[in-house]
From TrEMBL:
One of its GO terms (molecular function) is protein phosphatase regulator activity. The keyword Transcription does not apply. Keywords: Repeat. This is PP4R1 phosphatase. It comes from Casuarius casuarius (Southern cassowary). GO terms for cellular component: cytoplasm. PANTHER family: SERINE/THREONINE-PROTEIN PHOSPHATASE PP2A 65 KDA REGULATORY SUBUNIT (PTHR10648), SERINE_THREONINE-PROTEIN PHOSPHATASE 4 REGULATORY SUBUNIT 1 (PTHR10648:SF8). It comes from the Eukaryota.
Amino acid sequence: NMDSTLHYIHNDSDLSTNSSFSPEEERKSKVQDVVPQALLDQYLSMTDPSRAQTVDTEIAKHCAYSLPGVALTLGRQNWHCLKDTYETLASDMQWKVRRTLAFSIHELAVILGDQLTAGDLVPVFNGFLKDLDEVRIGVLKHLHDFLKLLHLDKRREYLYQLQEFLVTDNSRNWRFRAELAEQLILLLDLYSARDIYDYLRPIAFSLCADKVSSVRWISYKLVSEMVKKLYMASTSTFVVDLMDELVEKFCRCHKWSGRQTFVFICQVKCHFVHLFCLLEGKTS
């Protein structure tokens, strides 16, 4: 019975972003002609909390896992049918449900396009950034994939939040920091030389001093790629300043581990040493 199925949707105020909608108006907002309407209504009803308690505690997670596929099938023109359900799942009390959405939000952004992503997905993405590490790792693993879909001005807003990825619920979670270093390498292509120097450089130097060797090795590659990116930029002052900092912080470090770090960074890219020779004899 379609009416009884829709009862799950219309009587849950959390599924509607506008409480002034009447049940009939809300029902019309979820009507489409791509798949049988009863099938879509049944899917939407799966987010009802009572079902999770009486039918299957994992039902919300399965619904979250399938949502990108449903969105792809319906098309972006029918996103209004899924928007409330997506927001309900994004605020689910179970972290496994939120984690599932966090791992797929970049795929959903491709389906929806830049306008819907900026209006409907960015707020959810921002919420995931402040969530548990189990959820944050989902957005971190695909950080580049998501940010590249945003307009430049919106993308730059996240430069201020990248530093927060260095802080985790468990300091032993070194894979989190290693993933951050991997993503920063990809993010170099999305930002200007000034943004790289002002925001990504401090994070890279922090990762180079990490206690875990696996994190440090990825960070050496990050710094090397950063030098290459700044060297090829039209403004050469950034790469000169970066070279100076590398020399002072690592090459002339009073600890052998710091000097070893300098050697490892140079070792990553063979052209790195040649850059030092070109830039005012920084290695002498």
